[in-house]
Amino acid sequence: MRLKALLVDDEANILKNLQAVIPWEALDIEVAGIARNGEQAVEIARRERPEIILCDIRMPVMDGIRFLEELRDFDTEAEVVMMTGYQDFSYVRSVIRYEVKDYILKPIDYEELSRTVERLANGIRERNYEQQTMQREWRRVFHLAYEKVLYDLLVDLGGGTARSFLRMREAEEEGLTFAMMLVDVADYSKKEHTWEEKERKLWNFAVQNILQESLASLSLPHSVLQVRSGEWCVLVERRPSDPFDRNRILEWAELLLSSVDNYLKLGIRVALHPAPVPIERLAQAHKALQRQLNLSPATSVGIIVPEKSRAAEDSSSQLLWNWIEEMVTGLKRCDRIRTETALKELNDSFRRLPDVSAERAEPILHYLCLHLFREMRAIDVLSREEEAEIWRRIDRNPGVRDTLAVINQLVDRSLDSVMKKKTSDVLMLSARDFIERSLSSDLSIDTLADYLGISGSYFSLLFKQHFGETFVEYVTRQRMEMAKSLLALSDKSVTQVGQMVGYAERRYFTRVFSKYTGMLPSEFREMHQKQGEMAARPSWPSGGER
């Protein structure tokens, strides 16, 4: 970091010596100005804001003491070294109250002064680094809390904490709204069925990072929230002064499509909300976009912009969707009555549909079935074998009656599975999902305990009982396994890989990785390159279906 210095003395020879003798260039310091009195120095200091000032005390027009008094009115950070030939204690005492860093007697010992300047410069840089680190940490922690609130609101879990946080946010950003995009991997349900668990996590992780990097390149204030496996909600902050330009948002969506395709060879769908979304309507807008994605052909790739008129007239589709949502909510909350009531209403709604509506409802029900699959998989009530069998049945008999029969059977089976789960099992499923979505963030017992609404000690106990290892051991293992995949399958630097799995410092990441694998990250990558196990496209895992 290059610093600025200001030299102030009424003697021209001393100014020349200060410029010539002190190794400013070697110290990476620019002499931003020289002044013959305090009045000139005040003007230069206001304009240039130097970090280091060498100043004489006795000067005409305005002396050093008066200069210091005016300087501290607008700059309390600059480090000042006073130079004087007067060893009068009253002068020294006057200088002390203005936080002078050092006191140099004339005739000047330039070697001593050079050492003083170097010491000050090192101290300033160290302080600036610490301040920047603290600011980055605060921004990161604030953003994590902010994203947690946004996620809770998206999935309609916003409580007292969310409301308090948002009241503070709204006070800071009056009229804050969001441009909302929902990103979904095309035909994800079938892709996920063919992926192993490790591969599924890597694909989700890769897509999340591509979305974040793409939006970061536009310098947009944004959040990328993984709502469920294979689905992300992108929120871009908009102020009242920012026009809602649909064409610009289409350009953002095109960038996301092309970036994921270029890096991953994976097709995605992006649904755009047609209007700005205020904070209090996030859940409603999210559900609307989710419906648009699920009611569109699952294999389609591209951008979907909802049509208001079509959405308004298709009340039968809306009703069917609402009962599916109610069923999913009942399953998530282990509420048998709610789930069974919603299932009965869904069946009754289909029986009451006229023939024309029933024909139109056939593809709708099929895609609603996909939605139900994904939600049930997220709460761990559907095995891979069961899903494979259900897919075969749907592919053989795609009609409304048969698909509805599959849903009935699926819900009955899921209810039995959910009801058998203990409350602790449900909590740990939520914890696992949170960890998977947050590997690149700071994760702590307190963070997870707060998220689940339980104490830290109770969380630690449940976690060890459920997973057979401590929270720290589990998170470290997940991060290291992800890091191994990224090192083997991507061309990201070791520092970048470390940051992507939650380690801001390369040195610490290297130490943890070495302890876990027995080799340095660079050695691990080199080993995989030599064995020919690296993917065909080095940027990310290749082979995604279109």
Chart the SSEs and their pairings.
Blueprint: E1 3-8, H1 12-21, E2 29-35, H2 38-48, E3 52-56, H3 64-74, E4 79-84, H4 89-96, E5 102-105, H5 110-154, H6 160-172, E6 177-185, H7 188-194, H8 197-216, E7 222-228, E8 231-238, H9 246-264, E9 268-272, E10 277-278, H10 282-294, E11 302-304, H11 308-313, H12 315-332, H13 336-352, H14 355-378, H15 384-396, H16 400-420, H17 423-437, H18 445-452, H19 456-467, H20 471-489, H21 494-500, H22 506-517, H23 521-530
Parallel strand pairs: 1-2, 1-3, 3-4, 4-5, 9-11
Antiparallel strand pairs: 6-8, 6-9, 6-10, 7-8
Please characterize this protein's 3D structure.
This protein is of the alpha/beta class and 546 residues long. The chain folds into four domains: 3-128, Rossmann fold, CATH 3.40.50; 173-277, Reverse transcriptase/Diguanylate cyclase domain (Alpha-Beta Plaits, 2-Layer Sandwich); 315-421, no CATH class; 424-530, Homeodomain-like (Arc Repressor Mutant, subunit A, Orthogonal Bundle). The strands form two sheets. Strands 6, 7, 8, 9, 10 and 11 form a six-stranded mixed beta sheet that branches. It has a five-stranded parallel beta sheet with strand order 2-1-3-4-5, sandwiched between helices. The relative contact order is 0.06. Helix 12 runs antiparallel to helix 13 (336-352) and helix 18 (445-452) packs across helix 19. Residues 158-162, 309-313, 533-539 and 542-546 have low confidence and may be disordered. The protein is built from 23 helices and eleven strands. Helix 4 (89-96) links the parallel strand 4 and strand 5 (102-105). 62% of the residues lie in helices and 11% in strands.
